[in-house]
Amino acid sequence: MRGIEYRGLSRIEGPVVITSRSRNVGFNEVVAVYDREEGKRLGRVVDMSEDWTAIQIFGSNTGLSAGESRVEFLGKPMELRVGPDLLGRIFNGLGEPIDGYGDIISSTSFDINGLPINPYARTYPRDFIQTGISAIDGMNTLIRGQKLPIFSGNGLPHNHLAAQIVRQAKILDKHEASAGGAGDESFVVVFCAMGVKYDVARFFLDDFERTGVLSKVVVFLSLADAPSLERLVAPRCALTAAEYLAYERNMHVLVVVTDMTNYCEALREVSSIRGEVPSRKGYPGYLYSDLASLYERAGKVAGSSGSITQIPILTMPNDDISHPIPDLSGYITEGQIVLDRELTQRGIYPPVAGLPSLSRLMKDGIGEGMTREDHKDVASQLFAAYSRVKAVRNLASIIGEEELSEADKRYLRFGERFEQDFLTQGEFENRSIEQTLDMGWAILRYLPREDLLRINKTYIEKYMGEVIGS
């Protein structure tokens, strides 16, 4: 029976407590645990059998007594209260306001685990989102409804890149894309940080407040000293807020989540406490399906004018892209933006690696009426030319640059200009898609026209002008 308290715990194992009560108990159900010293603590059911139920506490187990504690099953999953005044608010990882403005005034609450989306109801992502960053907009375009992760590493500027995307991202009307319009007013951002240090959290909040974007952002912060379970709940609260804004308020929502590696570490810790058999590098065997339960909450649904776009950010341990976290994320998502340590060491920001980065939905969100008619050809030619630059640099490291042919030396000059002019831009420099494509043409002028095999000749005559050094 719901609402009845049961006295006594079978045992306490760190943040997990075991009770012998299991009748009428549901998985992920919210539980209240009472003790004499700390009072009420919340937790949720993480495992069960016919004879016992495992409950993970949101917090420490200090003061809990197996004989004196009381347990109350609340008969519902964990929920997030949502309402029109979500925007501009700051919450902790459990969805509790921490900005001093009180609770959300609303009678509407959503299950943080979300509702399954009928695959037949999904509509294909097609609309361009302008981030103002040439390396993304020009060559790895973000599409509304897409999930496009950023693969980074310790010490790389992914936090600054995330803040820049939150500041600058916008949706342009198809008729104003080439005119550099102000963007769709229904476009908002949900930002979630998990396991971050206090100074990193302060950096994000100060940046959002200073630049005036906080009024269109919902922030969820789970600091490094928060319990592991809070890191598992935080992205679900953020995505629940995004689903409310997208499907109830008909807004276009960009969800930026950092750092998914901290999330997976917390998942591994909880799995170890529960005594589960580990898989690759100690992560649970259900890591793939758990990540999919988050990533697949992005998309567009038929009958709703809103959308959810995801940019999860993860730091690759030891810069290993084959590590289980980036490896499995790459299977679920539609591409990746990879940050390069060598580019960072050379002072290039943002250090987006040209060749490993990919946006699988890019081809369906660019072109005439969406960005510009020459976008696809320019991006393809830049990729091909930069690929040859990498090969020429490898050759030069063996035989010396002076032994290269004149054609190869031109590609070296092209590569230098590509990295210094196209990839490199200031942290507060916001480029329109027009500026990005024009810059791409300016760099392609370093190559002979006969090498521009991926570009329609009509576009060459229209946009290119004189070849540099011809």
Describe this protein's structure:
With 470 residues, this protein is α/β, with parallel strands linked by helices. The chain folds into 3 domains: 5-77, Elongation Factor Tu (Ef-tu), domain 3 (Beta Barrel); 80-364, Rossmann fold (3-Layer(aba) Sandwich), CATH 3.40.50.12240; 375-464, no CATH class. It is built from 12 helices and 22 strands. Strands 9, 11, 14, 16, 17, 18, 19, 20, 21 and 22 form a 10-stranded mixed β-sheet that branches. The protein has a 7-stranded antiparallel β-sheet with strand order 1-7-4-5-6-3-2, with no helix packed on it. The chain has a 3-stranded antiparallel β-sheet with strand order 13-12-15, with no helix packed on it. Helix 3 links the parallel strand 16 (187-196) and strand 17. The chain starts with a strand and ends in a 6-residue tail after the last helix. Mean pLDDT is 88; it is low at 175-183.
